[in-house]
Structure formats: structure tokens, C-alpha cells
Design a protein that fits this description.
245 residues, eleven-stranded mixed beta sheet, 5 helices, globular, binds hypoxanthine
């Protein structure tokens, strides 16, 4: 049986409390991952940790080498991935500080390396992606968040934009019409690459700002940063709860 891996996003470039065994640099056929993969013990389990944006945070969402990250995690022994994503809130319940465990995703990104099957034209594989997130992992996340009493919506549609800029009000209005509840920049192609590699994958999304047009005024970075700091403390409790269950 493989290990859990945690992909930390904005505000989670290292996992305090991870009793580190080693830091592995894994070169992959797709280039270098965002950072060394940290292997250690956390809440009584073998756990792998990767900082999506590098450690320290330096790689913007559109330049993350998602293929290398996923390939390296599998190579290191992961079979279950919990991705932590900071997002903007679109639907009413998605207030700053709220959690969402999405069950669907819409891809608005462009120009990213989004498949492991790009070069092999003889064996093009069309993976089923009807249900992009692993239900067993989702239920574990839902249980962990609810047992800690944090406000959380147990389903939702994650709209993934290209970034690095934030959206216009019209774009968010369109995404809302499309059914999106939250908006972020890192859910794709990470989610589908996990599926192509046969890894179970779920997202713990933390709302760090109202999406464009969903509150008075413009979105400020200081507002996001404060929400990230407060929310990531809760994220660590959730991960610890899940892994020790
Ligand atoms: N839009 C896109 N990505 C984000 C946002 C947002 O409002 N907040 C955090 N990540």
C-alpha cells in the first residue's frame, strides 16, 4: 500500500510537525518538480509532502511543473493525494475562511502541459474524468473538517483559471452561470494528471477572498494573506485529524 501525499499550496510551503526522514530530489522525464519531496512521519503515518509553488514560494500557478510533481510523488510511493488549494469564493456560502471539498471541476486554463499522453500517439488514452475527485478521500476530508467544527461545504464546483492575474467581474459572473462555487488557479491540470497516473486525489479548498465582484471594492493581497495565515492553521489541524484517524 502506498502513502499519503500532501500537496501544499499558497501558505503551506512546509508541514510543521512532519518528522522528516529525508528530502528527496527526484528528477523526472518531465523535468524537475517544484521542490524536494519531504518524506516523514505525521500523525503516526508515513507521509510525503510537496510544496506546489516551491519552498520558498516562487513558482506562479501557470509555471508549476504539474507533470513532474505528480510523477515524482508517485515515484516516491504516493497513492493518495490531498491537495490544499487557496481559492476565491463565488457562491453565497463561500465566505472567507470557509472550506469546500469540491466534487467537480471546470478547466478554464490554457497552454499548460496537461497530459502524460502528449507524445505517445500510438497509445492515446482517454481517461474517464466524470468524477474528478476520489470519493473515499473526499469523505475522509469531510469527516475531519466536520469533527473539528470548521465551516465547510461538502461539495462544489472548482473553476480553475489560468492566472496569474485575478478574474474580471464578468468572468466571475460567467463562471457563476457555469455553476462554479469557487475559483482557483492550481486545480488543473493537477487533478487530471493524478487520474492519469491512477492516484486517488481530493482537494481541501480554503476560501481566502470573495471572488471579483462578490464584495465591495477590489481584492487586496493583504486581505488574502491574512486569510491564508488564519486558514492554514486550521488546514494543519484537519490534516492531522485525517491522518491519525
Ligand atoms: N481567483 C483565482 N485564484 C484565487 C483567488 C481568486 O479570487 N483567490 C485565491 N486564489
Amino acid at each position: 500500500m502506498g502513502s499519503y501525499a500532501i500537496i501544499g499550496g499558497t501558505g503551506l510551503t512546509q508541514l510543521e510537525g512532519l518528522d522528516i526522514i529525508d528530502a528527496q530530489f527526484i528528477d523526472t522525464p518531465y523535468g524537475e518538480p517544484s521542490a524536494n519531496i519531504m518524506r516523514g512521519r505525521y500523525a503516526g503515518q508515513d507521509v510525503l509532502f510537496l510544496a506546489r509553488h516551491g519552498h520558498p514560494h516562487r513558482i506562479p500557478p501557470h509555471q508549476v511543473n504539474y507533470r513532474a510533481n505528480l510523477w515524482a510523488l508517485r515515484h516516491a510511493g504516493a497513492d493518495k493525494i490531498i491537495a490544499v488549494n487557496a481559492v476565491g469564493g463565488i457562491s453565497c456560502a463561500m465566505q472567507t475562511g470557509h472550506f469546500c471539498i469540491p466534487d467537480q471541476i471546470i478547466d478554464y486554463t490554457s497552454g499548460r502541459e496537461h497530459t502524460f499522453y502528449a507524445g505517445d500517439l500510438d497509445h492515446v488514452t482517454h481517461v474517464d474524468f466524470s468524477y474528478p475527485y476520489d470519493q473515499t478521500l473526499r469523505l475522509k476530508l469531510i469527516k475531519a473538517v466536520s469533527s473539528l467544527g470548521f465551516s465547510c461545504t461538502n461539495q462544489g464546483v472548482y473553476g480553475c483559471t489560468q492566472g496569474p492575474r485575478l478574474e474580471t467581474v464578468a468572468e466571475v459572473t460567467r463562471m457563476e452561470r457555469d455553476g462554479c462555487d469557487i475559483v482557483g488557479m492550481t486545480g488543473m491540470p493537477e487533478t487530471v494528471l493524478a487520474r492519469e497516473l491512477g492516484l486517488a486525489y481530493a482537494s481541501l479548498a480554503l476560501v481566502v477572498n470573495p471572488a471579483a465582484g462578490k464584495a465591495q471594492g477590489v481584492i487586496t493581497i493583504s486581505q488574502i494573506e491574512q486569510a491564508v495565515v488564519e486558514g492554514m492553521a486550521k488546514v494543519k489541524q484537519i490534516l492531522s485529524n485525517l491522518l491519525s484517524a
